[in-house]
Amino acid sequence: MTQKTLEAIKYKRGDLQVLDQLRLPFETVYEAVPNTVQGHHVIKTMKVRGAPAIAIVAALSLAVELNALLTTSPTTLDTNDKVATFVNEKLEYLKTSRPTAVNLFEASERLSNLVRDNGDKSGPELASIVITEAEEMLIKDVQDNKNIGKFGCEFILANANSDSVRVLTHCNTGSLATAGWGTALGIVRDLNLSGKLDHCYCTETRPYNQGSRLTAYELVYENIPSTLICDSMASALLKLKNVKAIIVGADRVAANGDTANKIGTYQLAITAAYHNVMFIVAAPLTTIDMKTLSGDAIVIEERAGVEVTSTKGRTATVEVAAPGIGVWNPAFDVVPASLITAIVTNKGVITKNKGEDFFRIDEFIKNN
Ligand code: MRU
């Protein structure tokens, strides 16, 4: 019997529930998200996180709010103008929840353009178009991830020079970070299904521990051969354990391929280059931000120091630092394109031209 995959987002028209990831891996509790205020809250507090999941929950929170208003307060949405103003205001608000992952901004722009392009529809018709588009994002993300998994698995096996591979992944990029299957972790799943995965190592991913709490949970849940390491063990692992590839997700890929991802990704890319290990970024095209020319322009979210000075256990949050110490807590860092072997997308694998240290993503998009 095949096991059901984990679901971060449960949706049917009018009802959005998200898995509270702050309570994982110890408790499985879904929380209702009936409107954009709650959508903003679950994203900001990281009950739901991961670039694609953030965008989908934002869009679906708007969809459920519109759906409810259509029956409870139809006069608020009875003209095209009212719906357009309502949708655009809510999107502006949702965008203030977290700054780095571009998927939220891409989804917002898409919905806003949809509203602009449907100025001839009635209010209820326009609301229903927005609802349907948000629902399609949920379906499309799973298919995109399946494609990423397949392309990434093929690329790694073709370049690994061995029959089975050991890989390392960072943060959480699986079913919990997406609508399902996952990006980097989707590739790990495909490697495992192909029978060619010898082992998957995952980092703890301090300070928030998305690796030890969430990725480790997914790996155990799926019976994938796996081992947890502290972030500080990565270089020793590459030196001693014959790892063939580091596979990570992305929160924003700039036009030249520079990639923002969970803090700690940059040092993994440096150690991968030193040890001649493939460094693979896995992301749907919606994570590529062609308006941002290089990684220097990416806004990096800084979070509260308490996430560094304490750690959350099964029953309590415990302090792990000397009281009074200053803290710097950037949530993401940027890997220069020069350190990235390939960017695996839902449309195929982007590699660099020989002798170049950046990706020609514009050409890839034009041709695919
Ligand atoms: O702060 P988070 O947990 O939202 O950060 C998540 C990551 O950095 C992921 O690696 C990235 O969003 C890709 S998820 C498919």
TrEMBL record:
Domain of life: Eukaryota
Site residues by UniProt (Transition state stabilizer): C171
GO molecular function: S-methyl-5-thioribose-1-phosphate isomerase activity
Tagged with keyword Transport: no
EC number: 5.3.1.23
InterPro entries: IF-2B-related, IF-M1Pi, IF_2B-like_C, Initiation_fac_2B_a/b/d, M1Pi_N, NagB/RpiA_transferase-like
Residues of the active site: D251 (proton donor)
This protein's UniProt keywords: Amino-acid biosynthesis, Cytoplasm, Isomerase, Methionine biosynthesis, Nucleus
GO terms for cellular component: cytoplasm; nucleus
Principal location: cytoplasm
GO biological process annotation, one example: L-methionine salvage from methylthioadenosine
Family: Belongs to the eIF-2B alpha/beta/delta subunits family. MtnA subfamily.
Functional description taken from the UniProt entry: Catalyzes the interconversion of methylthioribose-1-phosphate (MTR-1-P) into methylthioribulose-1-phosphate (MTRu-1-P).
Protein name: Methylthioribose-1-phosphate isomerase
